[in-house]
């Protein structure tokens, strides 16, 4: 039976705002997520103007890793994780984003976390920006629609690179930078870029301008990082949802191909260092005025990423003549002309369960870019039940994960795709990003906390905990 390559990075993935808590501890400033309330499946999260004390902001406390990090990391170690992907909350380091000097207490917190991980032989894989822009930059500067925010981000990146250069080797610049191609759901532009679209504006034009600034910021950060430590591996991170044609009708096939550009635009620039023609043509056709400054082209060329990180949860299927749905309700990786795929089942939250889509994705991305790939998010969000004896039998999760990991193994061992590792999303239960719920659980470690924030925060091992431990121990031999 084959195994995964030696040094394959089996791990878990998290994002600061979804699990740390301690939202205003030790000098941390509010971030764009700290003003989001809890929603539910089909009920959008509200973005409040500022932190409103009478509203419930579930990320404030999250699962309080801030005070539990030693015990939580000990559990990750017991599972045998080789790496932990997490993020640095920007507003812990620069509370408003514009300070001259970083917040030492915030930096120290991550020193403590990284030291604890390394003590257990777990390598930190760090995202610089995972939906945690300081609120001040969003409200006062308009987020990344403002070019000045590039400098604030690059300064933050430089501080992190310098401080953690001996502790962190794998970095990612912006989490799921391409989420915001869905401009109809305000949550994406807000969390990605700190941007609110105003009346009369063309949201797609605004998105491209903010996106351009982020691509420049990412490229500048890559160049700075490499100058600080030439061994750093700095990657991009995109959400990848493959788009299938509904039928063999060439119209459907071409339509799906063109829709895939919504997924490819950002990684095309990150990896190749220049804008693809299909987007330049769109700017021309639509009359978008996207400001490129002198030198931007060179910056993009000099800041190409070393590897491509991506999340994979589901696929979607489009039909060229389907009725358009552009009302902000398409949140499950769908497109305006998505239709149901008769061959695919979905989770309780409507996310298509498609393990073959992961193998397909790995092949398409590798053929296109020919650089190492890192699956930095994949997982199964579901309701878990604690049995009377305290056990949590999450076979539904094991089934999902096993099928997806088998797909990765085929892509590596049969297709020859270069995959650095696999970090399972939400290794411990956390606050869901799109809904703000706790009951949409991904973890292998259960956390006693409910949608309203009640619970003891007690951690317990689910069945999948032991299953994953064995997969890691045997390096995927049993998959
Ligand atoms: C990705 C994000 O979009 O998917 C995570 O990078 C997020 O932050 C994950 O949590 C799963 O989404 P959700 O809404 O189920 O938490």
User: In whole angstroms, how far apart are the ends?
Assistant: 9 Å
Number of domains: 1
Shape: globular
Q: Enumerate the distinct ligands.
A: 6-O-phosphono-beta-D-glucopyranose
The strand order across the widest sheet is 1-2-3-4-5-7-12-13
| Low-confidence spans | none
Which class best fits the helix and strand makeup? alpha/beta
What are the main properties of this structure?
479 residues, alpha/beta, TIM Barrel, 3-stranded mixed β-sheet, 15 strands, 37% helix, 13% strand, binds 6-O-phosphono-beta-D-glucopyranose, 6-phospho-beta-glucosidase
Plain-language structure description:
This protein has one domain: Glycosidases (TIM Barrel), CATH 3.20.20.80. It has helices at residues 16-19, 65-79, 90-93, 104-119, 135-141, 148-163, 186-193, 203-228, 250-259, 261-272, 277-286, 296-301, 355-369, 395-413, 463-473; strands at residues 9-13, 83-87, 123-129, 170-174, 233-239, 243-245, 307-311, 316-318, 338-339, 345-346, 352-353, 373-377, 419-425, 445-447, 459-461. The strands form 4 sheets. Strands 1-2-3-4-5-7-12-13 form an 8-stranded parallel barrel, surrounded by 5 helices. It has a 3-stranded mixed sheet with strand order 6-8-9, with helices on one face. Strands 10-11 form a two-stranded antiparallel ribbon. The chain is built from 15 helices and 15 strands. The N and C termini lie close together (9 Å). The model has no long low-confidence stretch (mean pLDDT 96). The longest helix is centred in the middle third of the chain and has 26 residues, at 203-228. 37% of the residues lie in helices and 13% in strands. Strand 12 (373-377), helix 14 and strand 13 form a beta-alpha-beta unit. By secondary structure, it is of the alpha/beta class. 6-O-phosphono-beta-D-glucopyranose binds at residues 15, 18, 175-176, 239, 311, 377, 381, 425, 432-435, 440.
